Amino acid sequence: MKNGVSNIKLTSYDDLFGTNDAEQQGKSVIEIDVSELHEFPDHPFRFEMDAEMQELMESVKKYGVLEPILVRKRTQGGYEIISGHKRTSACKAIGQNVIPAVVTDCGDDEATILMVDSNIYRRNILPSQKAKAYKMKYEALKHQGVQNGLHTLEQMGEAFGESGKTVQRYIWLSRLSDDLLELLDRKKMGIVQGIALSFLNQEEQDWILDIIVDEKVQISTKAAELCKECAQNGTLTQEKAKEFLLDSQKKKSDALSINRNRLKSYFPSSYSNEDIEKVIFQLLEEWQQRTGGGEVGQGRSI
């Protein structure tokens, strides 16, 4: 069965997905050649050949694809994957030429919503993936207008168990360049800083990236907010952005930090950071009094 779809009928759509929707009645699972399958345009969810993928490949080898993928026909020929990119890749990796699938007939907006909803609950989803997925669903829902009295952000928040404001913040993050989103995914930049930088245009974002890379600095919340403020009033320059980032880094490097693990043997586990700090300063004051308040080197050594 190397070309297209076989006529073999497998489990019905309703039995498989447990739906009573009349629109889905009569849809069945068929087998499709993997060469006929194409990725969803701008699919935001990527995956690695990691342990989880290896497990999936082993499962497909042993038991086959237990849950059919969801596809729709393309006008250019073949099928577009709505849900099932990992299962399709697993089949290709182990040399399995066909995969069970349900072919659905839906428009672009509905396909986008289905694609996002079927992938958004993945384990270990990255901030960039969530941001792009939320943006795609947001645009698709906007085309459908207000439903059930809820505006688009509220609809999404209700569906994903998040507030409309949280959804809005992720949509703002989707405006970041791919390079800045990568910093976000690698935890080299926080979400709060990312949201502030999302208000910068592409050229301004490129300045920030160049400064971070060239100067080997991390951007603080204050520096990000200053850049946002200047960008919004049209006064941000590359020199200003560099000043904000380096000044923030200098203040950070001037701060003294002590590893809590090194203090464990000196304090009860019930002590909070504030408790520990209070004791340390009390001891320092006593030491200063004993040494006559002189600088280290002029009084006794610690």
UniProtKB/TrEMBL annotation:
The protein's matches in Gene3D superfamilies, at most eight in alphabetical order, are given as: 1.10.10.2830, 3.90.1530.30
The UniProt record lists the ParB-like N-terminal domain at 30-120
Q: Which GO terms describe its biological process?
A: chromosome segregation
Domain of life according to the entry: Bacteria
**Any one GO cellular component localisation term in the record:** chromosome
Report the Pfam families cross-referenced here.
Answer: ParB_N
GO MF entries: DNA binding
- Which positions carry the signal peptide feature in this UniProt record? none
Q: Which PANTHER family does its entry note?
A: CHROMOSOME-PARTITIONING PROTEIN PARB-RELATED
Of which family is this protein a member?
A: Belongs to the ParB family.
Q: What is this protein called?
A: Chromosome partitioning protein, ParB family
Source organism per entry reads Anaerotignum lactatifermentans DSM 14214
What lineage is on file?
Bacteria, Bacillati, Bacillota, Clostridia, Lachnospirales
